[in-house]
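Entry 14. Structure prediction run on the chain below.
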Amino acid sequence: MEESDSTTFLGLKESDSGPWDIAVLQIPLEMTSSYGEGTRHGPLACVEASSQVELHDPILTSELPCGAEIHTAEPWSSDAPSLREQLDSIGEYVKPWIVGGQFPLILGGEHGILLPIVESLSSHHEISELSDLTIVQIDAHADLRDQLNGERFSHGTVIRRALDLGVGKVIQIGVRAFSEEEEALMSMDDRIETWFAKDLLAVSGGHLKWDSLISRIGDISGPVWITFDVDGLDGSLVPSTGTPVPGGLSHWGSVEIIEKIFSSEKCSVIGADVNEIVPGSDGPLTQFSAALIATKILACHIAKS
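Output returned:
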């Protein structure tokens, strides 16, 4: 592997002036952590780890960037005193990239970053109203609580808040930790489609459910946003994330999901975020796992462009 730059995604040389096809955005939000901490360091750690990711992906005709112009933007920062003001600041940060014609690949930070992203997507040229949008959520948690620790804009409430905004569909994959309140909402709101980890990954018969999921993904239509909480992966792959949970997706299962979404002719992936990245004090596995997922998303976008 050639010597690389750890300050740019994948260590690639980048043009300073654009135009760019892909914008890699870092949002180190950490205000509502409910267990493990460190998401404020996650995006940079992921960028640094990505410099060690191989640039070859078999779905591409040449090594990354494979003709695409990628820009690693300056990270978001804010001194705003309240969470809502911080989220508003994130909205201002991401909106120029979301409406500017680039494919946004966003690294976080708490999962709460998704709310201002969705608010900004109302201005995207492929969305006439948010009911057109499908969010594909890979996650150990449902994130459907109305509040968590007294906070309505927590990482544990972000999908509930996105639905409040009018998002048309949420497809949850790998969920295995949820409350009674969340389970009731899953059964009552037909905009929520949940594929539980216990069904997808069961030793007996799980492959049948997995095949059904992959088929379902191929039927998604319209604009899609992918939100990938790294704790959707099995906890052994992301031991430093805030709440690692056993029994999650494998790396290759996640790759299959991502490739299937992008290969569909019925939908258009307009952007993605990879969140809840926490660098490990006992090794770089968590941020490297996140970097691999982010790279696969980027490669799939380039392959379809």
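The mean pLDDT is 93.
Filed with the rest of this week's runs.
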